Amino acid sequence: MNAGDYHHLSLLKKGRQQGLRYFMQRHMRALTYFAQNLVNDTAVAEEIVQDCFVKVWESRERFVSIENIKAFLYIATRNACINHLNASATKRQAQSEELSEGLPIPDNDILTRMIHAETITRIHAELDRLPPQQATVFRLSYFEGFTTDEICRTLGISNNAVFLARSRATQALRLIFKGKGLPYLLFIFFIF
């Protein structure tokens, strides 16, 4: 650790933003690269790293060395990335379960694969009858795997608009397929 490091550590501990800026300039690029390799999304990685620097600022009095700060930043970044990935996986799983509720899961059985393909085709056909924004949001979310933020950027709409369009499309499809007796048809296919 050089004299400049001690000086900036002292500034940070005293609550001077100059100290924080020094550590951000020193570690931001490496931490963002590290996070991006974990989450595969540059915008999310940048947000995670920025949040970690906020945590450094909030805990500034407890750091005794440059190594403490660096270790803290890497551990906090790693943990935040893991939390993000777990939350994303849980959300995708919930969305997938919601979409596939009542649908067969494809396996090696040819008949099951055929039913699955026909069901997906029917879903696409019914989506064409929904309002365009609902259908687009549903397709991007469930078939393309876009996140809410990606849909917002792609369509230029707010998070609330995405959630509303997705839930309305899902509800409409449930009513349509309930009215067409789809679970009954799938049961008949499985019997034969």
From TrEMBL:
Against InterPro entries, the record matches this protein to: RNA_pol_sigma-70-like, RNA_pol_sigma-70_dom, RNA_pol_sigma70_r2, RNA_pol_sigma70_r4_t2, RNA_pol_sigma_r2, RNA_pol_sigma_r3/r4-like, WH-like_DNA-bd_sf
| Domain called RNA polymerase sigma factor 70 region 4 type: residue spans | 122-172
- Pfam families this protein is in? Sigma70_r2, Sigma70_r4_2
DNA-binding among the record's keywords?
A: yes
Which residues belong to any copy of the RNA polymerase sigma-70 region domain?
Answer: 24-86
Listed GO MF terms:
DNA binding; sigma factor activity
- Gene Ontology biological-process annotations: DNA-templated transcription initiation
Q: Please provide the record's keywords in A-Z order.
A: DNA-binding, Sigma factor, Transcription, Transcription regulation
Q: Which PANTHER family does the record match to this protein?
A: RNA POLYMERASE ECF-TYPE SIGMA FACTO (PTHR43133), RNA POLYMERASE SIGMA FACTOR HI_1459-RELATED (PTHR43133:SF8)
The family line of this record is: Belongs to the sigma-70 factor family. ECF subfamily.
- This protein's name: RNA polymerase sigma-70 factor, ECF subfamily
What organism is recorded for this protein?
Parapedobacter indicus
